[in-house]
Every structure is written in structure tokens, then in C-alpha cells.
Amino acid sequence: MKQYSYTIDMPHSSERIWTTMQDYDKWPEFAKPMVTGISIVEKGDEKGNGLVRQVHYKLPLGIKGKSLERVHDIEPGIGYTYTTRSGTVGTLRLEKLSPDSTRLHFTEKVKYKFPFSLFEGRIQKFVEKYNRKTMENMSAWLTEHPAYPG
Q1: Domains recognised in the chain with CATH numbers
Q2: Could you tell me which residues come within 8 angstroms of residue 21 by beta carbon, excluding any fewer than 6 positions away?
Q3: In 3D, which of 125, 50, 111 has the Cα closest to residue 82?
Q4: What is the pLDDT of residues 21-60, one digit of tens each?
Q5: What phi and psi values does residue 40 have, to the nearest 5 degrees?
Q6: Tens-digit pLDDT profile for residues 89-110
Q7: At what angle do helices 120-144 and 14-22 cross, to 10 degrees?
């Protein structure tokens, strides 16, 4: 199992970032080229605990895939954890630095199944790079769309 983490400072309120992250229809606008879509398979409780989302993605060598992620341990406006069927666990936390500044903390422990496990190192570098890029793109998208709620 491989683990990586990163932090990104964003010039946006934690409320705007949280709202954007929960708006799965917006993800394809800033998650390119890796995430191509997210759909809700199962709604969670009033906080979103138990929500199951299906993430469609592209990997190197033109490989397309999808992952079912169950979201849990939600603290609205602060963070959550997700777990996949293969055993990958990701955590995201938002740290409010000021009314218009937030530090995003992300950690993911990735577990690949065969045949992806054969290319674990190469896939891991791609996923880590584009996962971080997705969050940077989200910040840029929020800057370009100042009227977006949050």
C-alpha cells in the first residue's frame, strides 16, 4: 500500500471550497484530465455519511476506470474520509486560515488490485500528480467564478 499527502493554500473561504467539492457536476470542469465524471450511486445521511460515489477516470496508457468510494466521518465544512472497495483510503481536511484563505490537507493510502498492481509505481506518480492538480484547478476555477456560492 502506497501513501502520499500534500497541502495546498487556497485564497478562498473554506465554505466556498466545501460547497464546490460537494457539487459533483462541477468536477469535470476542473479535474481534467484524470477525473471525467462523478455520479452518486447512494445518498448518505443528512450530513452525507454513507454516500457512495462512482468516480470515472483516465490513467496512463489510455486506461479508463471507475472507482466506488464510500464517504464517511464527515465533518461538514471541515472534511471527510472515503474508502474504496479495493482498500484505498483518502482523507481531506480544510483548515481555515482566515475568512478568505484555507489550507487543504489531503492524504491517500492507495491499494491497487491486479493487474494495476503490476504498474503501481507508474500509476501512483500519475494519480498523485493529477490529484493535486485537480485541487489547484479547483482553486483557479473558484477565482474565475467569483459569483459561485459558498
Answers
A1: 2-144 (3.30.530.20)
A2: 92, 138
A3: 50
A4: 999 888 888 887 778 889 999 999 999 999 999 988 877 6
A5: -90, 125
A6: 999 999 999 999 999 999 988 7
A7: 120
Instruction: Round to whole Å and give the CA distance between 10 and 136.
Output: 8
Supply the Cα-derived Rg of the chain in whole angstroms.
Answer: 15
Rounded to whole angstroms, the Cα distance separating 127 from 148 reads: 28
Instruction: Please provide the average confidence, as pLDDT, over all residues in the chain.
Output: 87
Using a 10 angstrom Cβ sphere, with 0-12 exposed, 13-18 middle and 19 or more buried, the burial of residue 113 is exposed
Grid coordinates representing 21?
A: 467539492
Alpha-helix residue ranges (DSSP H) falling in 54-149: 120-144
Rounded to two decimals, the pTM is 0.86
Instruction: Judge whether 109 and 2 are in contact, CB under 8 Å.
Output: yes
Q: What is the three-class DSSP state of 129?
A: helix
Residue 44's contacts (CB-CB under 8 Å, 6 or more residues apart) are: 50, 51, 52, 71, 74
Backbone angles phi, psi at 90, to 5 degrees: -125, 145
